[in-house]
Amino acid sequence: KKGIWAIENASKLDIPMLVIHGTGDRLISHKGSEEFVKNTQGKATLKPFENGFHELHNDSCKEEMLETVLNWTNNQLKHQSKL
Known about the structure:
The chain has 83 residues and is α+β, with helices and mostly antiparallel strands. It has one domain. The protein has helices spanning 2-8, 30-39, 62-81; strands spanning 17-22, 44-49. The chain has a two-stranded parallel sheet. Strand 1 (17-22), helix 2 and strand 2 (44-49) form a beta-alpha-beta unit. The longest helix is centred in the last third of the chain and has 20 residues, at 62-81.
């Protein structure tokens, strides 16, 4: 229910968001994250991790995931400092 609510209300997002999701997640389908990001109308960025599971911070892609988050955050800070 909450996932459906988030997807239906994604257009209300008014801040940048990075969504990371493993395509091998067996608890929550990455398709929901794809739909959510699509509905944010460009405010969210999706970074799927091929064959990653639910806890990416404990997965073999941990380093790539952390680098992705760090780079995205730094880009957001640079953008904000130009405003």
